[in-house]
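Section 3.1: Structural characterization of target chains.
Under the original work plan, the team committed to producing a structural model for every single-chain target entering the pipeline before any wet-lab resources were allocated. The record below documents one such target. The sequence was received from the expression subgroup and is listed exactly as submitted; it comprises 368 residues.
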Amino acid sequence: MKIIDRYILREYLYSFIGVIFICAIVLLVYMLIENYEEILKNNPETRYVVLYFLYSLPYNLTQVVPLAVAIAILYTIGQMARHNELIAIVAAGISTKRVSSPIILSTLGICWLTLIFNELVVPGCQERAGYIEKAFIEGKGEKILTRNKEIFVKGKGQRFYIMETFDSRTKIMTNPSVIDLNASGSSLAMRVDADKAQLIEESEGGGRFWRFENARRWIYDRSGMLSRYEKFDEPINLNMEEDLDKFLSNRKKPEEMNIFELRKYVNILQNRGESVEFYKTDYHLKMAFPFASLIIALICYCFAIRIESRNLVLGYALGITSSIAFYAFTALTQALGHHLIFPPIVAGWTPNILFGAIGIYILNRLTL
C-alpha cells in the first residue's frame, strides 16, 4: 500500500468512526425524547431504561451507516481540497479515480461488516429492546408478551386453529379447536375441541406432539354430516404442524430476524397460503441495504472531488442531498413492495441498482 493510500485511508476511517460516535449520541438523545412521556408515566426502573436504549442502538446505527459514510467522505475530501492536497496529488500524476481506491475498498469492507453485524447482533438486540419497551417502558407487564388472545389462524391445507389464548412461554393453548375442512373447503371433515393443549417435547428421540386434555372429536362424512363423535376421558396426543408453536407465538418483526430466519418465516407463511410480499420485500431489502454505503460513497466521492476548495459547501450539500434522496427512494420502493405494487425483489434492489448506475456514470465522467 502506497503512502498516499495509507494517508487517505487513515483520514477517512478516523472521520467515519467520529461520525458514527456522534450519530450514536444523537440517536440516544432522540430515543430519550421520543420515550420521555412513557418513562415518566410508567416510571420503569433505571436499568430497564438504560438497557432499552442500549439494545435499540445497534439497529438504529446500522440504518445511519450510509449517511455516516457520506459525511466521512465529504469531510475527508473537503479537507484535502481545502489544504490543496488534491492539487498536489493530481500534479504528481495520480488520477482522481486512483485516489478513490482506498475509500471504495474500505467502504466495501464496512458494507460486509454491516451485513455481518446485522445478522449476528441486531436481531437479538432488537427483539430484546421490543420486549423491554412493551413490558417495562409502556408498562404492559411480562405476561402480555407471552400470551396471545382470541387466536384464529389458518394452518396447512384446509386446517384452522381457534383458541382463547396461547402462552408462548409454556406452549399451552386454552380452549383450543382444530378444524379440518374437506378438500373443496365447503364443509367440515373433522373437529377436535379440548379444555387445554400443551406442546410436549421428548428428550429422547426429539419427538414433539400436542397433548389435549378433556378432548372431544367430531368426524364428518363427505357430505358434511356427522358420522362419529368421541369423548376422551384421558389426555390424547396429536401430531400437528412442526412449526405451529412458533407461528402461534408473537410474530417477530423483520428487523428482529436475520436473513435465514426471515426466509424460513416466509416459507411458513407460504405453506399456510398467506400473503408474504411484506416479508419478502424486507427480506430482499435486508440483503441490499448494507451495500447502500458503497453506492453512496461512490456518489459522494464524485461530488466532493469535482468541487474546488472555495465551493466546499456546495459539495457537502450535493452529497448530503444525494444520500437523503437514496433514503427517501428506498422508503418509497419498500412501501410499494409492501402494498404489492412492485414485486419484492424489485422493491428491495431498485435503489441500489439505480443509484449505483448513477454513481458509476458520474465516476466515468471524471476527467482527472
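The longest strand covers residues 159-167.
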